[in-house]
């Protein structure tokens, strides 16, 4: 299986520095952590009010508000910066605006600020989500997966293949509650069945890199957006007579795919990228991808559980 | 759940350097990789023949044999060094000698040398193993695990709790074949049942730190040995009427433990350390350890899949 090289590890030295020189680290006075990474071209595309921000060398953009500042104050300051970046030519941020906020955590697990979901990628903020794969298993143990096809009308990855249900984790949501809600809303599954049979099976974490919005008046190649993500994973073995059905406008249809069909679709790049990795993890956990047949077995597993260099909700001492 | 801090990550900067200053990196001329880490006190306890070794600053001990050197030649050179270290007061290396060799890989996946199993920890060489957990599941979905108690006569971790079967992966062995062999030899399981029902479920990787052998004539506190390990994981759901039985002298007995009993034993430190992490991973995969009840959920998962800074059998790009 081919995996692109992606975002280098810190210990890779030269490769890491080669990438990071194109970004500003987002920090806040008195908070000992990097909160995100913004492409330097975006930092330079607007002016940052001096009462709230300082642009530090080397390549840091820092909230000057003191540590005790209210969450809502920082949230407002960063929202103003988002509007400025949008007005500087990145209209897509506003187009995708969902009025759904992600928490940004400090090193003690405290919320430092909240950021609009559609802008989290611009600031390279780590985001969390939930992913469910439903499957059926026949008497011979052969697995088939309920694969969703995204609506052609979706703003992101229209028409691409997806897990059975998925969603983002907002401020204060429990992964399990969020997953149950998504599975009932997106796949019309009975909440009783989900509650009884849905199993928590782990989490994955990785750096996704994505092409940035074009910047008007700036034709030079811009650095990709950095999207560090964590996904809480769930699986649900369904009886053969239970059929997920689209409910809201998110999903075009659900189809029951056998393993070879899913592997073929993966290799053709038909899955939304952060759903593809969930399917790969499922295949590893179910013994379909094996060390004897996948030369990059361990490397894939290590990269799917990357330690992200940002605080998350809770950390060990 | 409490997890000790353990070996710091490279990006931790000061903490990483504070630990690493007590070790020499093992390298070889013309091979662009660190092969292991040796406590500097052990390096200084013997003299290293100048025709084969050079002690470089900062803190590197380097094979001077050229890149094309035969595996058997390097294997012999390092064996001589092992004997010297043993004679300098670390007799335990010889006491544990098993005539079982581990491969040491270069960055292209090629074997650079082989090292006696009982000496791999001394040189901080990454080792690979296989681990099997057998379990039964009742009608309500409640899981019980077949837990082994190690023989009191074992040289390492006598009397401690263990997975159902486990073993080290020698040169050229396939994880699945090695696991089947261990499960038949240690737990008397029928190879037909294993072959049909045993499932590959992933791998874990981590840095284990272990107190070193005492050095005669050197009373200063010595740095712990560094044991980077990778484990290929397997599980096997057994019918209630199948009972694993000790076969060789490795295992005292097998008992069927419920989840609460296993969690209690984990918290009391009754498991061999690198078996405890396998049980924790099983509990995460089976939804017994959950994000809602384990505050360190993601941190534990990331640390159980650490990217090790050494070449392994095959690597990406």
UniProtKB/TrEMBL annotation, chains A, B:
Name the Pfam families for this protein: DUF4743, NUDIX
Name of protein: NUDIX domain protein
Q: Which source organism?
A: Aspergillus sclerotialis
- Name any one GO molecular function: 8-oxo-dGDP phosphatase activity
Highest taxon of the source?
Answer: Eukaryota
| SUPFAM superfamilies assigned | Nudix (SSF55811)
Domain Nudix hydrolase: from-to ranges: 127-284
């Amino acid at each position: 299986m081919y995996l692109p090289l992606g975002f280098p590890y810190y210990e890779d030295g030269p490769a890491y520095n080669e990438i990071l020189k194109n970004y500003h680290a987002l920090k806040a006075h008195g908070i000992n952590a990097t909160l995100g990474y913004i492409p330097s071209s975006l930092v330079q595309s607007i002016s940052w009010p001096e009462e709230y921000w300082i642009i530090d060398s080397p390549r840091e953009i820092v909230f000057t508000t003191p540590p005790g500042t209210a969450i809502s104050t920082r949230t407002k300051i960063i929202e103003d910066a988002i509007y400025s970046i949008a007005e500087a030519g990145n209209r897509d941020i506003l187009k995708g605006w969902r009025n759904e906020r992600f928490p940004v955590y400090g090193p003690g697990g405290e919320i430092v600020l909240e950021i609009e979901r559609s802008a989290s990628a611009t600031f390279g903020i780590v985001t969390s989500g939930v992913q469910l794969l439903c499957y059926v298993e026949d008497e011979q143990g052969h697995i088939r997966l309920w694969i969703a096809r995204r609506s052609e009308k979706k703003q992101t990855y229209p028409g691409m293949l997806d897990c059975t249900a998925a969603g983002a984790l907002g401020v204060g949501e429990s992964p399990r509650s969020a997953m149950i809600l998504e599975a009932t809303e997106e796949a019309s599954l009975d909440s009783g069945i989900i509650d009884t049979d849905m199993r928590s099976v782990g989490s994955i974490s990785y750096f996704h890199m994505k092409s940035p919005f074009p910047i008007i008046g700036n034709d030079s190649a811009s650095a990709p957006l950095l999207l560090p993500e964590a996904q809480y994973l769930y699986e649900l073995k369904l009886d053969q007579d239970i059929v997920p059905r689209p409910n809201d406008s998110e999903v075009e249809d659900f189809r029951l795919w056998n393993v070879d069909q899913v592997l073929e679709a993966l290799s053709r790049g038909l899955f939304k990228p952060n759903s593809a990795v969930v399917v790969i993890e499922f295949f590893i956990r179910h013994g379909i991808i094996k060390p004897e047949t996948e030369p990059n077995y361990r490397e894939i597993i290590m990269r799917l559980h990357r330690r992200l260099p940002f605080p998350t909700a809770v950390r060990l001492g």
